[in-house]
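Please check this today:
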Amino acid sequence: MQNEFVKPGWTPYWVPEATQQVGAIKVLIEHCRLKAVPIIFTAFGPTNNFLDRPKTGGLMPNRFPEIGTGHNEWFTNPRIWHKLEVKEEDVLIFKPSYGAFYDTPLQTILNSLEKDTVIICGTLTNYCCGTTARQAYERGFKVVFGSDVTSTDDPTMQEPELKVLRKGFAKVLTLKEIIEQLK
């Protein structure tokens, strides 16, 4: 839920549905805080002088070569959208690629916290969130994936991605169901 995806019209990567979901995600975060569930934010940004990036990243069709390289401020100073305040007790991990486990300390942090379950919300369902769910599953974590607190860059992709996650990687629940389960 970083500015590049949530701040209206700022980048070609803006996901309008993500902006609309900020309120619901905030409800989930606040409920988790009340239940002493650790909050871990992830943001795509500069790590290790960009040497930890998949080399083929720039070749992906979701890039915007027509706008040139003059937008160097994007993804270089990653900030979580201001309405989803990162508090001192929260963790903020900068990641080099879609999944939050790839070349990050996330697994070590979860193990240190003695957590065996992750709840995933945010954007993009069909990139970062879905990849993180798969990586969590592969590492032996239980995965809860919010169906209405995640969004895609193409709304027609939301349900197909949720269907795949439901079938093999995660327990897909609504915000209301997640809150009920946390009780």
Q: What stands out?
A: Residues 63-71 have pLDDT under 50 and may be disordered. The beta strands are 40-44, 91-95, 117-123, 142-151, 171-173. Residues 99 and 132 are 4 Å apart (CA to CA). The chain has one domain: 3-52+68-182.
